[in-house]
C-alpha cells in the first residue's frame, strides 16, 4: 500500500508541475487572448475614455462620431447617424417596422488578408439591449474588403421610435464575428 500511495503522489506531483508550467506560459504570453491597447500612439488627440464592460473583466475604449476607431486590424469611422422610415437599394426600399437608424460608416482593412463584413461586426447598444443590423438594407454587409482598402456605406437598424430617440445610444464595432477586440462609439454627440 505504501508503494501505491507513493506512486499516486508522484503522479499528482507531475500533474501539478504540468499545470504550473502551463500557467507560466499563459501569463508570459498575456493570457487573456486580447491584444493590448497600451500603445499610446493610437490615442493621439481623441476624446477616448475607458469604460468597464458589463462583466467588469476588461475595459473597452469609447469614441465619438467622426473619430477613427482602431479595432485589431480594422479601422472604423462612424461619420454620423440619422433616422429614416425606409431604407435599401433605390427602387427596392423597404419600410421599417418601427424606424431605421442609419449609420454612415467607413471600414478600412489594415490586415494582410481580405475580410468580409458580417452583421456581427457592428451592433447598436441602448443600455443593456443589443440590436443587430438589418443585413438586407445595409450596404456594407457581405462586402469583401481587401487589405489596405476602405469601404463606405450605410448600416441600418430597424428599431422602435423610443430607441431611436434614446440618449446614450452607442455602436459597438468589432474585429471578426466573435468580437474578441471591440470598441464603442457614442452616437448622441
TrEMBL record:
It comes from the Bacteria. This is DUF4352 domain-containing protein. Residues 32-69 are annotated as: Disordered. Residues 63-177 form the DUF4352 domain. The keyword Zinc does not apply. Residues 51-62 have a biased composition (Acidic residues). The chain crosses the membrane at residues 7-28. InterPro entries: DUF4352, Immunoprotect_excell_Ig-like. Residues 38-50 have a biased composition (Low complexity).
Amino acid at each position: 500500500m505504501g508503494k501505491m500511495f507513493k506512486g499516486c503522489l508522484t503522479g499528482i506531483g507531475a500533474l501539478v508541475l504540468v499545470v504550473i508550467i502551463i500557467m507560466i506560459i499563459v501569463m508570459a504570453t498575456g493570457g487573456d487572448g486580447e491584444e493590448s491597447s497600451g500603445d499610446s500612439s493610437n490615442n493621439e488627440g481623441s476624446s477616448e475614455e475607458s469604460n468597464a464592460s458589463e462583466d467588469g473583466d476588461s475595459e473597452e475604449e469609447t469614441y465619438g462620431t467622426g473619430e477613427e476607431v482602431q479595432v485589431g486590424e480594422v479601422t472604423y469611422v462612424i461619420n454620423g447617424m440619422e433616422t429614416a422610415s425606409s431604407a435599401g437599394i433605390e427602387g427596392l426600399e423597404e419600410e421599417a417596422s418601427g424606424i431605421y437608424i442609419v449609420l454612415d460608416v467607413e471600414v478600412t482593412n489594415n490586415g494582410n488578408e481580405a475580410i468580409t463584413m458580417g452583421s456581427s461586426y457592428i451592433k447598436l447598444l441602448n443600455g443593456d439591449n443589443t440590436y443587430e443590423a438589418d443585413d438586407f438594407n445595409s450596404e456594407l454587409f457581405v462586402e469583401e474588403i481587401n487589405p489596405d482598402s476602405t469601404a463606405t456605406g450605410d448600416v441600418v437598424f430597424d428599431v422602435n421610435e423610443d430607441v431611436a430617440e434614446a440618449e446614450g445610444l452607442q455602436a459597438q464595432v468589432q474585429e471578426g464575428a466573435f468580437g474578441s477586440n471591440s470598441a464603442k462609439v457614442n452616437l448622441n454627440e
